[in-house]
Amino acid sequence: MVDIYNEALGGDIERLERLLNEVEDGQDESSLKINLERLIENVQKAAAEQVAYMVDMAKSDAMDLLGETRQAFELVVRHV
Question: What is the C-alpha to C-alpha distance for residues 8 and 61, in angstroms, rounded to an integer?
Fold first, then answer.
């Protein structure tokens, strides 16, 4: 009975080691490193989208004050 348990446990350990090695081989040296180029790209894209949103909301408010509610609504709908 102990031999069966030891063989099963040994097989499980070997499978887990292989799985761990496969996962580690597919990763960079450290998952804690920050990819600065990708970070800048993501921040610039998010910032551009946020600025476009703020500009459209300001335009929408101005149009609403001028009575152009339909055009104001169309600007808001872009972001909903």
Answer: 69
